[in-house]
Every structure is written in C-alpha cells, then in structure tokens.
Write a structure and sequence with these properties.
Strand content: 15-25%
CATH superfamily: Vaccinia Virus protein VP39
Largest sheet: 9 strands, mixed
Number of helices: 10
CATH topology: Rossmann fold
Oligomer: single chain
CATH architecture: 3-Layer(aba) Sandwich
CATH class: Alpha Beta
Shape: globular
Order of helices and strands: EHHHHEHEHEEHHEEHEHE
C-alpha cells in the first residue's frame, strides 16, 4: 500500500480556498491574509469577476514576515527566498513539489504560500530499495504523516492540506500535473547515495509537460577536481549538475547568480559544513566562517525534454 498523505478532503476541494475545509473553523492567519491579498476580504470562496486592486504587500512578503519565521529569517540574506522563488516562476495558485524538504526551512515559506490557492506537495526520496532495519522502515513508512503534522505545527497550515509521499509512489492524480519541482541543496546527497538518476527519473514523471524544476546547490569551482567536487564535500560543479539533468531528460532554461557567494572558496577540508549554519569546526575560526556566510550556490531552472 502506498505510504501517501493526500488529505485534501476530496478532489472537488482542491481548487477551494483552504479555510473552506471546515465551515466553522477559523483559517490560519497567514492563509487568511494571503487570500485577502489575492481575492479580497469579502466572499473569499468565490473569485470576484473583476480583478482586485493589488495591495503594496505581496503574498510572498506576507509569508516572509510571519512570526513563525523569526529564527529562519536570519538566513534570508544568504538564501534570498523571494528572489529565488520569483526566478523559479512560482505562483501561489500552482501545484508545487518540494523535494527532500528535510528540516523545513523552505517548507515554512512554500506551504503557507501555496496551500491556500494551489497545492503543496512534499516529496521524499524512494526508500523501497534500501536495506533498512525495522525501526528505520517504520520511520520511513510514517514520514508522510509525521511531516504533514510538522508543517501544521510549524506554520498553522493544516496537515490536511499537505500531500506527502516518496518519489516512487506518485498518486495517480498527480502524475504529469506538477507545475514546479524545487530542489534545495540536495543534489550532493543524491550523488553520494548513488540515487540521483533514479530520483530525477521519478521527478520527471511527476512534472507537467510545461512544468519547471528549480535547483539551488552548493557550487564547486569549475576548475575543481572530481575528487573534491563529487558531492562528498557538499559541493558540485555547475556543469556536472547541468549534465546530470540533461542525461535524465531535462534541459537548462536559465541560470542565476541570486545565491552566489564570491567569498566562499568552496575548498574546505570539512566541506560545505565548515560554513554556517552547521559550523562543523565549532569555535575554531568561527568568526571567519560566520563573516563568509553560507556557501556559494548555483541557481538553475530546467524543463523536461519532450
């Protein structure tokens, strides 16, 4: 049986604003404000015939200013979430899949941004072929439910609005429908686990024909050796990432330097984890690494080849 959380109540509810799930339930404030911004404060369950005059604050700005992002906000200057999501052409009405969401830094932006008008998906790596003990298998099987509950705890977006599954268990109604797939700082892990090709093939099946894949990844210098840029240090060469996508049926649409950091030489013996936020060396040269900031990163946009 598929380990999938697809709790959007019913197919007919997918296009309904999130707060319509329960008639007497008050919506989370962030979703309410976003829907006010887009649809207007009155009759939010019905799109007005005439466009609402836009306000000064955008939906993404509302989310980025939320109190639940108080700790996350310190990293905005390194991760540039508004500029990055704009570059990836993300709209709140889309079906957006976040791949390998991990600790949820971007989830706490994407879920409240998307769940009210679109559909937010969390896609984890395929664990079916892994040699897991009983406890590990139980955790893998329960991940969709646990992650959906975490999103509700983090942001107030109801777990019922989260669709979570492993990449080999795509729900039938989602195959070929996703507008955007976003992969944040995960490509080196796929490389290290020797699962990059299989995961990209799974994601290709999920993506709509006109959909796009956005990638942010720690970047090694173009001149770096393979041994130091194969993912074991967290860094990959940009040309290698583009070639990997090309081999799996994608083509590069555009690249950006939004998340570049020229102060990062990307040659640390402890890899990318030398820098914030991990600071693997603890207090050793801590001020130096904090001053450098987070890693140099490529930002790439792909489409699938027909």
């Amino acid at each position: 049986m598929k380990r999938t959380v697809t709790m959007l109540i019913a197919a007919t509810a997918i296009t309904t604003p999130l707060f319509a799930f329960q008639e007497n339930q008050q919506p989370p404030s962030v979703l309410d404000r976003i829907l006010d911004r887009v649809l207007g404060p009155v009759e939010q369950t019905e799109v007005a015939e005439e466009a609402v005059e836009p306000e000064a604050t955008s939906a993404i700005e509302i989310v980025l200013a939320e109190d639940f992002r108080t700790e996350d906000r310190a990293r905005d200057r390194y991760r540039h979430p508004e500029a990055t999501l704009n570059f990836f052409r993300v709209e709140p009405t889309m079906t957006v899949a976040e791949f390998a969401p991990g600790g949820g830094w971007y989830t706490r932006v994407l879920a409240p941004l998307i769940a009210g008008q679109g559909r937010y998906l969390a896609v984890n790596t395929d664990t079916s072929g892994r040699d897991l003990d009983a406890e590990q298998r139980a955790r893998a099987d329960s991940w969709p439910q646990r992650f959906a509950a975490s999103v509700e705890d983090w942001t107030g977006v109801p777990a019922a609005a989260i669709t979570a599954f492993e990449s080999d268990e795509i729900p039938d109604d989602l195959a070929g429908t996703v507008d955007r797939i976003l992969i944040f700082r995960s490509m080196h892990g796929l490389r290290n686990g020797n699962i990059a090709d299989s995961e990209l093939r799974n994601l290709r099946e999920l993506l709509a024909d006109d959909g796009l894949v956005g990638v942010v990844q720690h970047r090694a210098p173009a001149s770096e050796t393979w041994a130091r840029s194969n993912g074991t240090r967290g860094y990959l060469r940009q040309a290698d990432v583009i070639a990997l996508f090309r081999l799996n049926g994608f083509e590069l649409v555009e690249s950006s330097e939004i998340n570049a950091n020229p102060n990062d030489p990307a040659n640390w013996e402890r890899g990318v984890w030398t820098l914030p936020p991990v600071l693997a060396l603890g207090q050793e040269n801590r001020d130096r690494y904090v001053a450098i900031g987070e890693s140099d990163r490529m930002t790439l946009l792909f489409r699938k080849v027909q």
